[in-house]
Amino acid sequence: METPGIFWGVISWMIVWAVLGSIITRRSYLKRDLDTSNATFVGAMMGAAAGPVGLVPLWMRTPELTKLLIVLPAIGAVTLIAAAFAFADPSNNCVSNGSFVASQITNGIIIGIIYGFMALGLTLIFSILGVVSFAHGEFYMVGGMLVYYITVVWFPGVSPLIGVLGSCSIAFLVGAVFERMFLTPMYKGKIDRPVEYGILVTFGLAFTIQYFVQALAGANPVKARRFFDFPRLRLPSADDAWLLKTSRGNLTLFDTISISNPRFVAAVVCILVLLSLLYFLHRTWTGKALRAVSLDREAAAIAGINPDRMNMLAFALGGMIAALAGSLLVQAFSWLPQVGNIPAMRSFVIVVLGGLGSLPGAFFGGIIVGLVEAAGTGCIPNPQKAASYIPAYGMVVLTLTLLLRPTGLFGRRFASGTHGKF
Amino acid sequence: MRRQVPYYAGLALIAFLALFPFVYSANDYDYIMHIFIIAFFYAILASSWSMLAGYAGQFSFGHMGFMGIGAYTTALFCHYFYLSPQATNVCTEFQFGDTWLVIVNPIGVTSTTLTQDCLSQALAVWGGAYEVTPMPVWLGIVLGTIMGGVFGLLIGLLVLRLRAAYLALFTLGFAEILRATISAEINITRGQAGIELPKLFQDGITVFGRTFSSTDKIPPYFAMLALLLLCLAILTWLAKSKFGLFVRALREDQDAAAALGVNTTRYKVLVFVITTMMAASAGAVQAHYIGIITPNNLFLLQMSLVVAMAVIGGVENFVAAAIGAIIIEFVLEMLRNSFDIGGITVDMTIWRLVIFGIILMLTLRFTRNGLITPVIEYFTRGHVGGETVAHRAQPADESEAAK
Amino acid sequence: MIKLVVKDLHKKFGGLHVLKGVNFEINGPELIGLIGPNGAGKTTLTNILDGAIKPNSGTVYLNDTRIDQLEPYQVALAGLGRTFQVTRSFRRMTVLENLYVPALAMGRPDSKPAIHDKAMSVLEFLTMDHLRNEFAQALSGGQQKLLELGRLLMLDPDIVILDEPFAGVHPRLMDIIHEYIRRVNDEGKAIIIISHQMDSIFSLSQRLLVLNYGDLIADGEPEVVKHDPAVIEAYLGSDEDEEEPEPATETQS
User: Complex ipTM, two decimals?
Assistant: First the structure.
């Protein structure tokens, strides 16, 4: 960075006003008995974006916080950070190189879709069981590991589709058995603090699975080969393929944006599965029953739904979703028993950002986190530092969310069960 | 009396631990002593975490982060601060009377820069005419403890409004940010390579006419044991005083506690500060004992070990958590030996952790108070049932009201 | 002399005007019943008095100390204690420990034995002394209710608010609760009882406050209030009152 002073100066200025804005705006809205659920967030963003110029009118007039008023300052703050960065470090790759930026953004969105998909499993578990599963990353890891073992070690040459299906069904079974054995007592009133119990027991499951896999598979990284190759495409014509060009492992759009095959395949599958999941939740009896349980446990039970069975289904389904994400990404990354840790944290971030228990929230949260990580890895000048900070980007998002808007983007209150205890 | 049994057992245990280093004399003396020291370290973490999570109900997953703050504070302090009788004129320095406080500039990890910080340059110029004094280790440990408390206060204030899962996620996030920062800021912390610290008793120590070298195990053994006993004493005192009562009330029902006059905010923050200070001091002493601290010590795995130790011992009783930590550390070490079954080598270094994880889940599932708390409660609360029944038998009209 | 002055309390939840200017005073050890149909604002009023929520406007003075902007624990220390509609004992603490919490929170320099003796006498009065070392979660619902009342005795406030003390209580324990109320009253404390059990309220209280949709529609002796046309209208006049949900004041936030 050429002039770090400018950048950090702007950042500290923004932080000071954001802190002031978040505290005082909330107070002033509280005083006039207005809805304060967004006041902290808007105050912080307004302070960051416009400083006193934006804050003083906000405090004086306390307008109703419409969607526009929520979104605009946030965009302003992000733009300001970007502008300060560009001004302080004009020769940085992510300022001067437009195609690099386009590539980062596209890849950020694509990887974000996969992240969001994985977080969907976590949010599904939470909305039905009220448990934050700390074993989510281990399901992801197991999913990838199983695909590797099925397609490479046990049955070499078998179609990757069978590998993915096999790993998903095993993960589903593991989830169902675990729920039956360890989570059912939560609902029988046998546990004093169900939320903490849920955290600890899934934590124990994560620990066990991780070392179990390490004991069986060893600590050497493994990698599955690409599931399938792109067909050779040249659009609009073979000589001048400015629109789309594919090689077996890569896809290039507009000659600038390069997307690797495994990520592309993973994102497409994720979207397809997501659509079928939405169909399942909204159009089938079981799916509707699941949603009913997440809304009101007791009422659903009275209506003839067996909530215990729905619990088992939700936990198994959630685990399976994580395993599917893992089994799709095993072709892109090398795989270790510890590989689930960072995606697990990321899923927590996404779920909190989107609002615990909100399905669309998980999806959009995933894209936001994907973009933040792409920006972080692309823009921090020292690449080694940028890589070391990867786990931290999401955590910064998490911290900000919890401080500014603990309900997340699409958060809702839970009516019954253990949900209300948060 | 039966109720006194745990106290006598505790005293006997302390006496055993105090005498052990002088009585034991097998070949693996240093190894066993090392395990004891590490076990004490985990015992401090597990017992302070049980105060935070079990008593106050604040399920923080950032405890290892606070441990790391203590360790890194003293590491950086001992690494970058020196006292010199003469100005170096190359480093950042402040004069206090005849001495200069020298702050060494950060250096990277490449081999050429490792020995070329400003202080070495100055020393080379002086050619042995002056000698600089490193900072005392105890001051580093004190600073680390204070720093842990400061961060505990900050985090404690930030998590006031968060409950259960959100609190766990937030503290986990804090620990992760910390670890990422330490790994990334290689210039200052040397990243994954880890930062070296002077030994706990760098120049040896003489006690009762017996001189111990810096590699002797007895001084760090007693230093860590003393710290453990100090922490347990503080925790016992807190638990017996109104502090313990209030934080438990707060765990059970925050609103009801407030309605009865308990300043919930104050006690919530206070319990954070106290327990994080304990974690930080343990981390600082342990880092000086080992001689190196790396960001890997802050991994989630380490946190899971502490959580598992506390849960298996009994998360709602810090003595049980401490004893559980010591026992588990020993069992884990003893299980290291791999063996063969029919030509297949079973790598116990990994399988022992699998077994450990299964024990953790089963403990949670079937005995919610852990494995050691019930033993203690058998003695301390054994009379309660008889008391209840005895009185209930007399006034007949109570028999149906009581349950 | 105990004096509680509630002046022009207003509270809105979003568009819902729950309290529309409530005024009343308590002078001395009165025994007051607070009644009203569901949704009348009783719980909101209690929560404001207790400090759990802040009013939009209006003031509450307790013995010349303004308490409406204080935190709940400060209100408790200022001399106003309450029980909750849903029993909230400290479930995994022993019965004695439950009683120690308010006594120690008061910060009076009582010695430990003195507190213990006081707690034991409270337990004897509640006929629960044999349960002193049991965990509160082992008690029956009614006994937990008694325990909550016992905690208030240990807090020793000037004004006691009992939110539904008779709900779901065995008749035998009911007698203890009646005796408790008389005893606390005899000790010179003011008591506000919120209940739907009209017999108990009418037989116990010396003065009745009737809330209806945020308005205090009656204030006086039970016999007079009973025949007040506004009260009869509020209770009998409209059926849809029962459908109105209690405003969400007790949400765990």
Answer: 0.82
